[in-house]
Design a protein that fits this description.
Layout: E1 3-9, E2 23-24, E3 27-28, H1 29-39, E4 45-50, H2 53-60, E5 66-68, H3 76-84, E6 91-94, H4 104-115, E7 124-131, H5 134-138, E8 144-147, E9 153-157, E10 173-183, H6 184-192, H7 197-202, H8 207-211, E11 216-220, H9 231-248
Parallel strand pairs: 1-4, 1-6, 4-5, 7-11
Antiparallel strand pairs: 2-3, 6-10, 7-10, 8-9, 8-10
Helix pairs in contact: 3-6
Length: 249
Amino acid sequence: MKIIAVIPARYAASRFPAKLMGMLGKKTVIRSTYENALKTQLFSDVFVVTDSEIIHNDITRNGGKAIMSSREHETGSDRIAEAVENLECDIIINIQGDEPFVKIEPLAKLIEVFKKDQKNEIDVATLIRKIDDWKLIEDPNYVKVVKDRNDFALYFSRSVIPYPREKSFLADYYEHVGVYAFRRKALLDFAKLPMLQNEQAEKVECIRYLEHGMKIKVIETDFVGVEIDTPEDLEKANEILKEQINEKI
């Protein structure tokens, strides 16, 4: 089973333009993410796929592998699908370019799901995290997921799901952590399938898999990534990096 990692990297960002080219220590954010993915030693290969020559050059001139995306895409999964069309692989892990502190454990859990899937019934695997802060549960920026007893996703939503009809019963709530693992065929099929009403309404790309009958396995984790969305986030990431370096000294 050949497992690769692909890091989608758009240059534009509404809240923090060119954030992936911001400096994290002596390297750019995107280069840090790429090199940290390599260091996990979980993958046969790691690629950055980007719409930007600036990002492409930053990776390749430092010995990395990058693929130019030739088309505009609605989602990161669509961009990755274009990248893997001509790559030999079985499983693709989507690593977020703006989360440079790549963790081995949650990625290894995603990979293990496919190694144990003898019937090849899992199309996609993704991470979820239990949340109990009601502000986060109600926040539409936090995508919630409900699952069945076998840990397959039933639905993803920006709304509160399940809805607390009986106040005396406290349900478990899960946040979707946007780290995916795909079977190659499922990902290529995804890019050819139309966006249906629920995905269009929610603006949550993994709904497309469910609406077209594919199966998504969810894996619970306590993983919380360090996502860089603002200049302040980059400052915090640099503080974390300094702490990590000091711990090694």
